Structure prediction request, 362 residues.
Amino acid sequence: MKIKTSIPLKTSEDLLIKRLQDKKTSSEAFKELVSLYKERLYWHIRNMVKDHEDAHDVLQNTFIKIFRNINNFKGESKLFSWMYRIATNESISFLNKRAKCNHITSEDLQQQLISNLESDVYFEGDEIQLKLQKAIASLPAKQQQVFNMKYFEELKYREMAEILETSEGALKASYHHAAKKIEEYLKTN
Amino acid sequence: MKKEKISYNQKSGFKTPANYFEGLEEDLLDMVKLSETLGEKKSAGFTAPIGYFDGLEDEILKKATKPEPRVRKLFTKEAFLYAASIAAIVIAFASTFYINPETQTSWDNVELSVMENYIDNNNIEFSTSEISNYIFQQGYIIDDADLNTVNSDAMKNYLDENLEDPLYILDED
Prediction:
């Protein structure tokens, strides 16, 4: 009698993780990982830190952290969510450090970053896009994150919930509040 | 009239994510309103330098595989022990000069009750003769050798006044 065995099919993500965790194949696998996620993570970080050079530094730190901690990745969440979470935390730490160094509050730093955009060669937004950035900067930090991830990065609430470790309901409410405030800001300014 | 039965399963098999319909109206309304104000374009307006993403893999890999700089402790265990020894010597040396003599420990400063407890707990063993060499007077311990110089009449009077049991009054020689 033939006994059926249920061997779970390895997804490409599982295989990539395995190769990343194996010293012999880690370098090649890491290059693949960077190639797969570099643009998505860059724009995620860029939306938070605004400046290209800063985004580049944070992106590098994010990938270095991923490389050095891949053996601690237990697969409890998707690799994609884990990487986004690291990128989000790195961006927040970067902004907090910057505010502390400049002896200003996080809110003042946001305003400073937005005023720098007007002379930034890597910002090609028109008047309405600049106004939108100003409106986003006026939101609380959490709402800014949620708005950027939903509106610009078009992430699903399910994915956002995994990255930010929050419930989908809370994220929907947060996005709704953010959108309403932005609408009001755009109408009145 | 008999109702005609549907020969196939009415369930389509399609599913929606949990809580999909929760807040859907608000979500759609937000989307419509924002697109009215901002247009269909969802770009933030940021750009990256041309060719920025090319070769980024090698650049990051190079940095990630670079050995982490070793952090050397300013104070090793040996250095700490040396410093602690020197500090102890300095403190001991300084204490001989600067400690107030009134605060120095002497037999007279030790609480009588503490001393009694110490002896009662058998922390120290005195022979009977050793104990007989010491007497307590006004809360202080004194060596009875000091009493050799005391006039025997004065001693007799003292014991007479201070001892209630006359049996303890000894006859002269």
The helical segments of chain B are 24-38, 56-65, 77-98, 112-120, 128-132, 152-162. Residues 107-168 of chain B form one domain. Residues 77-98 of chain B form the longest helix (22 residues).
